[in-house]
Amino acid sequence: MEHCLHSACHVYVLIIGEMAYDTTFVAEAKKVCDGLHVNILPHQIPLIIKEEKINLIFGSLSASNEASYVPVLEEVKANYPLIKMILFLQSERLMFLDEILSLRCERYLSMKKERENALFHLNESVKKFTDDVFLAERHYFQTLLDFSIVSQTDVDGNITYVNDNFIKVCGYTEDELLGKNHRIVRHPNTPIYVFEQMWQTITQGKVWRGQIVNRNKNGSDFWAETMIIPFKEKQSQKILQYLSIRHDITPFLEKEKLSNEIKRKALEQEHLSDAKDAFLILFTHELKTPLNAILNFAQYLYKHMPNIDDVPKEKRLYLLEQIYKSASSMLENVTNILDLGKLRHDKLHYTMTLFSVKEAILDVIEKHGALSLEYKRRMLFKDDGNEPFITSDEYRFKQILSNVLSNAIKYGTFTVEVFLLVRSDVIEVVIQDDGKGIKDKEEVFELYNKSSSAQSSREKKGTGIGLHFVKLLCEGLNFEYQLEDSTTLGGTKFTLRKRLKEQRND
């Protein structure tokens, strides 16, 4: 693929000394190199070299200024060792021969014998410099290609060359690739705008760089750091071909992905550990409160058993009712924890039956009557006159409503409303309260999270698992759910939806 290696090599020359006065020579020298600078004042040489890219200093030392030229050229050689020098010497008038020889110029020529051939020597020097640079660039470029995944295409993107690395990575043979469009390795998931941007760049003669995923013959993917270089004809600047140089970064990305996954899991475990600690504190409190009530009330009744008739019947019934309610609360919390564990590990089984949605709602409301009295909340139920039936797990459906309704009672202020609405294609159950609302409406459904609006310990009335349990049950039973601000009561509004079209397809 030598045709893609030839690039323009520019040579910039500085003419010094007496030759700088020769206008004919200077005019011809301009045709030989890409850039020519002329200097007759030695002290200006460092400034020219600093401001311009000079590859070769060519010329003679003026006899009158020889003492000025030598130290300046010594400075240039020390600061710019890659600049080459070719000097014409007038041997009969040299005063600083040792100093001039210590410059270690590429060549020393006799002014007397070679002056007439100065243009020839300049042309040969420029050509040699060009060849040397080209060979060096070719060596480094070829080394780059040997360790890269390389392909070459015509201006339409049809493959004209691939190296062995390209064949090894993509899995196609050379015969399967040559003549085919480069889209043969395009990944279908890469957005079209990536290629549009790439073509817009390279058709303007600019180099395009980017990370892009490719598809191998066997269907596997590989990520590559890609550079596409347009090669242009020197005179017309017309694009002749494109060279693509890739480096496979798939292993690096996989290691980075693995590292990020390890970090993510470590952070997740840390958060989970913190959340579990917080949960244990909350859950212990939730168990301790009803357990204390059970122990205290049971102990009271036990102590008064010999004279139980002395304890008013109403008080006995109240104490037994509190024991029953406390035990039921504990059982509900423990059951939720056990069910949550099963649900998170896909081990919870559903029992699907056809049941009345309205009757299920009324049953949940009735069971929360004691809780509403305890918190002094008024519960209202409203429907639109319809009595829909759905096929689902009735027990789990009631668990969803129970968790949401208990939160509405605990976090409300005075009123909790429950609505049953039926439209042509959906059943909606709405539970809303007149409390302070919830700020983090998404996070509150995650495990052990509770609303950030509940700031004081008095307001933290739950274990933080209820709404996460609701979320998992809704996902498992194909219910839609939404938490938003209540526009009528000012608190929180929870909406549970079941689409009837899905119901009929079951």
From TrEMBL:
It catalyses: ATP + protein L-histidine = ADP + protein N-phospho-L-histidine. One of its GO terms (molecular function) is phosphorelay sensor kinase activity. The keyword Kinase applies. Keywords: Kinase, Transferase. Residues 282-502 form the Histidine kinase domain. Its EC number is 2.7.13.3. Coiled coil: none annotated. It comes from the Bacteria. The lineage of its organism: Bacteria, Pseudomonadati, Campylobacterota, Epsilonproteobacteria, Campylobacterales. Residues 154-205 form the PAS domain. It is an enzyme of class 2 (transferase). This is histidine kinase. SUPFAM superfamilies: ATPase domain of HSP90 chaperone/DNA topoisomerase II/histidine kinase (SSF55874), Homodimeric domain of signal transducing histidine kinase (SSF47384), PYP-like sensor domain (PAS domain) (SSF55785). GO terms for cellular component: plasma membrane.
